[in-house]
Write a structure and sequence with these properties.
single chain; 4 strands; 95 residues; alpha+beta; globular; 4-stranded antiparallel beta sheet
Protein backbone atom coordinates (compact mmCIF):
# COMPACT_ATOMS: atom_id res chain seq x y z
CA UNK A 1 0.00 0.00 0.00
CA UNK A 2 1.25 3.47 -0.81
CA UNK A 3 1.43 6.22 1.80
CA UNK A 4 1.96 9.92 1.13
CA UNK A 5 3.93 11.92 3.72
CA UNK A 6 3.50 15.71 3.76
CA UNK A 7 5.99 17.20 6.20
CA UNK A 8 6.27 20.94 6.89
CA UNK A 9 9.37 22.37 8.52
CA UNK A 10 9.19 24.57 11.59
CA UNK A 11 9.76 28.23 10.70
CA UNK A 12 13.41 29.25 10.94
CA UNK A 13 14.67 25.66 10.97
CA UNK A 14 16.91 25.80 7.89
CA UNK A 15 20.04 24.96 9.90
CA UNK A 16 18.35 21.86 11.40
CA UNK A 17 17.54 20.69 7.87
CA UNK A 18 21.07 21.33 6.63
CA UNK A 19 22.69 19.65 9.63
CA UNK A 20 20.59 16.48 9.20
CA UNK A 21 20.28 16.31 5.42
CA UNK A 22 22.91 13.61 4.81
CA UNK A 23 21.48 11.39 7.56
CA UNK A 24 18.00 11.87 6.06
CA UNK A 25 19.24 10.97 2.56
CA UNK A 26 21.04 7.91 3.96
CA UNK A 27 17.80 6.90 5.70
CA UNK A 28 15.90 7.16 2.41
CA UNK A 29 18.65 5.22 0.63
CA UNK A 30 18.20 2.46 3.22
CA UNK A 31 14.52 2.32 2.25
CA UNK A 32 14.97 2.83 -1.50
CA UNK A 33 13.00 -0.32 -2.34
CA UNK A 34 9.95 1.30 -0.71
CA UNK A 35 10.43 4.86 -1.99
CA UNK A 36 8.11 5.69 -4.90
CA UNK A 37 9.05 9.37 -4.96
CA UNK A 38 10.69 11.76 -2.50
CA UNK A 39 11.87 15.34 -2.47
CA UNK A 40 11.77 18.67 -0.70
CA UNK A 41 8.90 21.13 -0.71
CA UNK A 42 10.13 24.55 -1.84
CA UNK A 43 9.16 28.08 -0.91
CA UNK A 44 7.46 30.31 -3.46
CA UNK A 45 10.51 32.56 -3.76
CA UNK A 46 11.31 32.66 -7.46
CA UNK A 47 15.00 33.60 -7.37
CA UNK A 48 16.27 31.23 -4.68
CA UNK A 49 13.61 28.87 -3.35
CA UNK A 50 14.26 27.48 0.14
CA UNK A 51 13.47 23.94 1.28
CA UNK A 52 10.45 24.22 3.58
CA UNK A 53 9.35 20.61 3.97
CA UNK A 54 9.31 17.15 2.46
CA UNK A 55 6.93 15.18 0.25
CA UNK A 56 7.36 11.43 0.04
CA UNK A 57 5.35 8.50 -1.26
CA UNK A 58 6.38 5.09 0.00
CA UNK A 59 5.13 1.56 -0.63
CA UNK A 60 4.72 0.09 2.86
CA UNK A 61 2.76 -2.87 4.23
CA UNK A 62 0.46 -0.91 6.58
CA UNK A 63 -0.12 2.23 8.64
CA UNK A 64 2.08 0.98 11.48
CA UNK A 65 5.00 0.71 9.07
CA UNK A 66 4.27 4.23 7.79
CA UNK A 67 4.22 5.62 11.33
CA UNK A 68 7.46 3.79 12.15
CA UNK A 69 9.12 5.12 9.01
CA UNK A 70 8.11 8.68 9.88
CA UNK A 71 9.34 8.35 13.47
CA UNK A 72 12.69 6.95 12.33
CA UNK A 73 13.46 9.76 9.88
CA UNK A 74 16.50 11.73 11.10
CA UNK A 75 14.65 14.95 10.27
CA UNK A 76 11.83 13.94 12.63
CA UNK A 77 14.29 12.87 15.32
CA UNK A 78 16.01 16.27 15.05
CA UNK A 79 12.70 18.08 15.55
CA UNK A 80 12.66 19.66 12.08
CA UNK A 81 8.99 19.21 11.32
CA UNK A 82 6.18 21.46 12.45
CA UNK A 83 3.68 18.91 11.14
CA UNK A 84 3.61 15.51 9.47
CA UNK A 85 0.48 14.29 7.71
CA UNK A 86 0.37 10.71 6.45
CA UNK A 87 -2.37 9.44 4.15
CA UNK A 88 -2.89 6.20 2.27
CA UNK A 89 -2.49 7.00 -1.41
CA UNK A 90 -3.50 5.33 -4.65
CA UNK A 91 -1.59 5.88 -7.88
CA UNK A 92 -3.96 6.41 -10.81
CA UNK A 93 -1.93 8.22 -13.49
CA UNK A 94 0.26 7.21 -15.21
CA UNK A 95 -1.10 3.67 -15.41
Amino acid sequence: MHFAFYCKDKPGSEQVRIANRMAHLDYLEGHKAQVVVAGPLLSDESETPRMVGSLLVLDLPDRNAADAFAAGDPYAKAGLFESVVIHPWRKVIPR
